[in-house]
Amino acid sequence: MSESHTPPSGSARLNTGVAHNARVWNYWIGGKDNYEVDQRVGEHVASIIPVIRDIARADRDFLGRAVTHLTRELGVRQFLDIGTGLPTADNTHEIAQRIAPDARIVYVDNDPIVLVHARTLLTGSREGATDYIDADVHDPEAIVARAAATLDMTRPVAVMMLGILNFVLDTDQARDIVRRIMAAVAPGSFLVLTHPTFDPEVGGELQVPAMEFWNENATPPITARSAADIAAFFEGLELTEPGLVSCSQWHAPSGSAVVVPQYGAVAMKP
Predict the structure, then answer these.
(1) N or C: which end of the chain has fewer CB within 10 A?
(2) What CA–CA distance (Å, rounded) separates 146 from 106?
(3) What does the DSSP assignment read for 200-265?
(4) How far apart are CA 214 and CA 93, in angstroms?
(5) How many CB atoms lie within 10 A of CB 4?
(6) pLDDT, tens digit, for every residue of 25-84?
(7) 0.85 cut: is pTM over it?
(8) Which of helix, strand or coil describes residue 268?
């Protein structure tokens, strides 16, 4: 997963013979931008952890509720969405710009198939701005520097890291990435994060065998973490209500959500 600032088309890094997370995730949420190998691996993972489709949908629904809350209730007008994934319905910019047409969004990913689709589909309002940069989460300084071409880094930014830090296998390195990105944004900015867990309290026992299969048969490798390790990503930030919970329960209608082994939270930089 190396950074490439100016890939001509992304085809040099596109490998359709090995299942890839962005395409398998797309398959789980009912999308069409995937290959047979992604479907095979996706089905096998689902046979190990049947709730995986619920996790994928819950993560997507969390994004919608979080962006809506940040834009409508908290007045956020800038979003840095790291680990975009393949565009589907109701992407970050679409949700934010429906509420605030002047919202500005920068998407970050480095999967070539995501790059191709993003350049075609991620177009925003005339009043706001929508941009896409090809960069690696392991290089937060490059992400921030290039995002500054579209975002005003002296004003609050919502940093979206949904299902991305699980691909940074070293926990200390993952924490350092978050610290470096949040250090670069203005006070009043937010960290919006989801992350898979193996905690049995939210039904995470099956994550371990599912991820072992994934790491042997697909890319990139992935890890789950405990609630304590995930909570540590928010060190120095102020969690908004209801804190760190199953992402399906964050601001969800009362009694409507199944609990999934994927934590989610939103926190403000004081």
Answers:
(1) C
(2) 9
(3) GGGT-TTHHHHHHHHHHHEES------HHHHHGGGTTSEEPTT-SEEGGGTTPPTT-----SEEEE
(4) 30
(5) 15
(6) 889 988 888 889 999 999 999 999 999 999 999 999 999 999 999 999 999 999 999 987
(7) yes
(8) strand
Q: Count H helices and E strands in the chain, helices first.
A: 9, 10
* Closest by Cα among 102, 140, 141, 156 to 124: 102
- 3-state class (DSSP) for residue 131: strand
Q: Please say whether the beta carbons of 79 and 93 come within 8 A.
A: yes
- What number of residues does the chain have? 270
- pLDDT, tens digit (0-9, with 9 covering 90-100), for 84-141: 777 676 889 999 999 999 999 999 987 766 666 666 555 666 788 989 888 999 999 9
DSSP H or E segment with residue 158:
strand 158-162
Q: What is the DSSP letter of 73?
A: I
From the number of C-beta atoms within 10 Å of its C-beta (0-12, 13-18, 19+), residue 154 rates as exposed
Distances (CA, A) of 46 to 25, 27, 55, 208: 11, 11, 11, 13
The first and second tokens of residue 244, run together, are 């760190």
